Amino acid sequence: MSNDDLFRQLKFRDPARARALAEALRHNMDAIGREVSVMHVCGSHEQAIARFGLRAVLPPGLELIMGPGCPVCVTDGPEVDEAVALAMQGVRVCTYGDMLRLPGTARSLADAQADGGKVEVVYSISQAVELAQAHPEEQVVFLASGFETTAVATAAVALASPPPNFSILSVHKYVPAAMEIVAASKETHIEGYVAAGHAAIITGWAIFEPFAARTGAPVVVAGFEPLDILAALVKLTELIREGRPEVANVYPRCVTKEGNLPAQRSLWRAFRTVTGRWRGIADVPGGNLELVPELAALDARKRFRIDTAGVRDAAAEEEAKGCICGRIMLGLATPEHCALFGTTCVPESPVGACMVSSEGQCRIWHTYGGVPDLRKVG
Predict the structure, then answer these.
(1) Residue 105 located in a structural domain
(2) What is the pTM of this model?
(3) What is the pLDDT of residues 331-351, one digit of tens each?
(4) Which residues of 166-190 are buried (b: 16+ CB within 10 A; e: fewer)?
């Protein structure tokens, strides 16, 4: 079989297959016979769901909610304050582009940059290391954000003896811990979860087995094409219908049960889980990734005395302005429930974190129109 033949078989946007999956989903919901709420915990899933209008084809009674799946959104304001303070102290702070406009309690890194702070946007932590090598007279700090997938890249650099003027300000988060918070919430009624395929490539799908057994909610690992997501929903409703709190993997072309073991070893050689604040949500036990004591020399919080007194303003946090990002990330509200959505809060001038990042639900719904009304199409 040629590669061309192989690629032709990889039809992830085949209309006939989509209709068949939609029919299977309707069949499962008819068999369940009541309303069901399920959650996905990934901004990339939300992008595909909104871009392809998948919610508009879901059967009545099936609610698909986005959870805390945007790493930028859940980075807390005081964590941004630390980076802003370092930049204003003359330290060169490097980070990914979507962190630039994320609000701290009063200012963002973009604000710091406008005020003369040293802020650099990089595409990878390796680029930040290169900047440190090119400027040995300066201290360079990488503001390391993201979930398990990007934390692995940070771990690889941390374990590779970076230059002495380089350090890491970790705001990495660990997704499984946040799923526990959602499941424990008395306000949510989530009966099953769609897990992010890219994180599961690292962790493996078996990591969710204790969670499913403990909470009684099945988990399905999914890829990011429209048919991947529809297939995950079919499998998830099948497990709910049959009362089976199990883990299923509908992304076998990338995800295995055990995951990437060398990557996991690097991750846990460099990091340990600690309790940390997720913006607008809660203190999440085991939700943050902190450099291990053996790598303390690389930890910017230990290398510098970070004084945020001059940049912090708790009263100015977005919640005080009517923003409901926290409720949106917990799955208790959608962007359309927020009075600021699309009015005073837009991508050009975001109020809350969910409008800043391309993986935030408000930004995604603003871009793609949320839940389209198919009656208005053609």
Answers:
(1) no
(2) 0.88
(3) 889 999 999 999 999 998 888
(4) bbbbbbbbbbbbbbbbbbeeeebeb
